[in-house]
């Protein structure tokens, strides 16, 4: 692992994680290149900001569940190859019901150069501290559809409120939101704004 990168769970206490791309539970349907263990890795600057987010979430009765932080460039390259493969239908209904694979890139849901590869971008959600249940956000991780956009129509008041909680927590902690994905936040003052790393999560 590169200097200044750490396993997030070793630095930020009291978080949960489920590294989706290390598992079969992601839009490609299998573990993705570069994810060799179910852990999340990020920069130390990211972890310092995440500690602030954790504290703000706790004050509202929530905890943080992380799906992805650092993403090796080889994983992004795998996404691009996958997008060119024939559709098998296994994950389409759940993750990209109204678009075809190549449109994920065209519509901004997946990037050929991902902010995640710089080490300070996170995909995450909230869970209720009293029950451990995930907060209802009106859609799961990596649902590549307009329902995942901030301000999406057709979600309930509770779902909109939960998204607003997550947004305020992250923005107050030094992160910026991404219009197309309610779960995606990038550290504003990231330490490697122009570097895309490719070491594996191992």
TrEMBL record:
Top-level taxon:
Bacteria
Provide the binding site for Zn(2+). 116, 123, 184
Please verify whether the record's keywords include Iron-sulfur.
no
Keywords, A to Z? Answer: Cell wall biogenesis/degradation, Dipeptidase, Hydrolase, Metal-binding, Metalloprotease, Protease, Zinc
Site-annotated residues for Transition state stabilizer: 71
Q: Does the keyword Membrane apply?
A: no
GO terms assigned for molecular function = D-Ala-D-Ala dipeptidase activity; metallopeptidase activity; zinc ion binding
Q: Which InterPro entries match?
A: A_A_dipeptidase, VanX_actinomycetes/firmicutes, Zn_M74/Hedgehog-like
Q: Which residue windows are transmembrane per the record? A: none
Q: Which cofactor does it need?
A: Zn(2+)
Any one Gene Ontology BP term: cell wall organization
Cofactor stoichiometry and binding?
A: Binds 1 zinc ion per subunit.
EC numbers, comma separated = 3.4.13.22
Record's catalysed reaction(s): D-alanyl-D-alanine + H2O = 2 D-alanine
Active site annotated at which positions?
Answer: 181
Pfam families per UniProt: Peptidase_M15
Q: Which NCBIfam families match?
A: dipept_VanX
Q: Tell me which family the UniProt entry assigns to this protein.
A: Belongs to the peptidase M15D family.
**What is its biological role?**
Catalyzes hydrolysis of the D-alanyl-D-alanine dipeptide.
Write down what this protein is called: D-alanyl-D-alanine dipeptidase
Q: Which organism is it from?
A: Amycolatopsis thailandensis
